[in-house]
Amino acid sequence: MKLNSNPTTMNLKLILIVIGAAIALGTLFYTQDLVNKLQERERQIVQLYANSLEYATSSDNISSDFTFIFENIILRIDFPMIVTDGNDNIISTKEGSGYKNISVEKGMSEIKIENFLKAKLLELSESHQPINVKTPDGTIIQKIYYGDSEIIRKLKYYPYLQIIFALLFITIAYSSFSYIKRSEQSNIWVGMAKETAHQLGTPISSLLGWTEILKMNYENPAKVLDSVDKINNDLVRLNKITTRFSKIGSKPDLVDDSPMDSIERVIKYFERRLPQLGKNVDITVEGDKNIKAKLNPELFEWVIENLIKNALDAIENKEGKINFAVLDNKKNIEIEVSDNGKGIEHNKRKEIFRPGYSTKRRGWGLGLSLSKRIIENYHKGKIFVKNSVIDGGTTFKIVLMKAEIIT
Fold first, then answer.
1. Are the CB atoms for 385 and 351 separated by under 8 Å?
2. Cα–Cα distance list, 402 to 257, 296, 327, 377 (Å)
3. Between the CA of residue 117 and those of 100, 122, 127, what are the distances in Å?
4. How many angstroms separate the CA atoms of 264 and 280, rounded?
5. Can you give the residue ranges of every domain in the chain?
6. Distance in angstroms (rounded) separating the CA atoms of residues 80 and 24
7. DSSP-assigned letters across all residues of 211-244
8. 329: which DSSP letter?
9. What single-letter DSSP state applies at residue 404?
10. Which pTM does this prediction carry?
11. How many CA atoms lie within 13 A of 82 on its CB side?
C-alpha cells in the first residue's frame, strides 16, 4: 500500500524552482540595466560639467547665463567627484573646489586631507575613466574623476540581497512544507493503522461471538445453520475490507455501475448495525437505478460508509435523518448526502478533508480525507461541502464521471 507523493509533486517543485530562478535572473538583468542607465546619466552630467569648464577656459568673459548653468550643474551632482589638473594633481583640498560629495573627517590637516583625497582618487580611477577638460587646441588642462552615487551602489547590491532573501524564504517555506507533509503522512499512517483495526475489528468480534454460539448450540441444527449464515456474512465483509485496502495505492478499475446499488448495499449494512449504536436514524435514498457512473464499487462503498459514519457522529437529535439523492445532470452524475446534524462551521469546510483533522475525542480524522482521495484521485471526480447550517445539518456533494452510453 503506497501513500507517497506522486511524480506530479516533484514536477511542481521543479517548476517552482525554475520560476524562482527566472524571477531572480529577470530582477538581476532589470536592475543591472537600470544601473547602467543611471551611470550613463551621471557620466553625461560630468561631461556637461567638463564642457562647461572648457567653455569657461575658451571665453574671455563668463556671462551671467553661463554662471547660472554652471551653478545648476554643480548642484545636480550627488556622486563623489575629484577635479585634478592635467597631471593628476588635485586642484584644491577645499570641498566644492577640488572635490565634492566625499566625506572628510573634521579637524584633519591639509596634508592628511590631500593624502586621503589621493587614495580616494585612485579608488575613483578604478571605478570610471576620468573625463578630460581640454582647451580648443586639445591640451588636457583638467581631469574629472567620479564614482557612483549612493542610489547606484544600493541598486548594485539590491538583486543579490533579493536573491539571498528569496533563498531564505524558499528554504523556510520548503522546510515548513516538508514538515507539514511529514505530519500529514504520519497522520495518514496512524489513521490507516487505526482504520484497519477498526474495519477488521467489527467482523472479527462478530466471528468470535458466533463461534461461541456454535460451541453452545452444536447439538441444535437450526441454530448452527443460522450461525453459519452469519459467519458467512462476516467473512464476506472481511473479504470486502481486504479488497478495499488492496486497491489503495494502485490504479483501480472503473466500471459502468449504478451508484444507487452501492448506496443501497451500504444502507442495508448500517440498518443492521443502527440498533447496536443506540440511534434512531432514518437512512433513505432517492433517484433512478438506471443512472450509471464510472466507479469502482468497493472503493465507492467505502466513501458512502465514511459519509454515513460522519453523519451519524454529527446527528445529536433523537430523530436523525440521512438522505441520498442521485441526480443526472447530463454531463456527469451528482450525489447529494444530507443530514440533520450539528453542521460545520464555514471556515472548517475544507479543513475537514485534511488528514488528521477530527472533532471527535477518539477520532483519527481519516474517513473524509480518504473519501476525498478515493473520489478525486481514483474516480477523477469531486467531493465537497455543498452547504451547511449550524444545528441545521450538512449536505455533501459528490460528482462522478457519467458512464459511456452505448447505442
1. no
2. 10, 13, 11, 16
3. 11, 9, 15
4. 18
5. 7-147, 154-229, 253-401
6. 30
7. HHHHHHTTT-HHHHHHHHHHHHHHHHHHHHHHHH
8. -
9. P
10. 0.51
11. 30
Q: What type of residue is 189?
A: W
Task: Quote the cell numbers at residue 378.
Answer: 481514483
Q: Give the integer Cα–Cα distance in Å for 20 and 166.
A: 8
- State the burial class of residue 194 (Cβ atoms within 10 Å of its Cβ: 0-12, 13-18, 19+): middle
Contact 379, 400 (CB under 8 A): yes
Which three three-digit cell numbers place residue 207? 466471528
Q: Residues 360-406: pLDDT tens digits? A: 544 445 678 888 988 998 899 999 999 999 988 999 999 999 987 54
Which architecture, in CATH terms, is 253-401? 2-Layer Sandwich (3.30)
Complete DSSP assignment for 76-123: H--S-EEEEETTS-BS-SSBTTTEES----TT--HHHHHHHHHHHHHH
Q: What is the mean pLDDT of residues 206-213?
A: 77
In percent, how much of the chain has pLDDT > 70? 79
DSSP states of 331-380 as a string? SEEEEEEEE-SS---GGGTTGGGSTT--SSTT--S-HHHHHHHIIIIISS
**AA letter at 290:** N
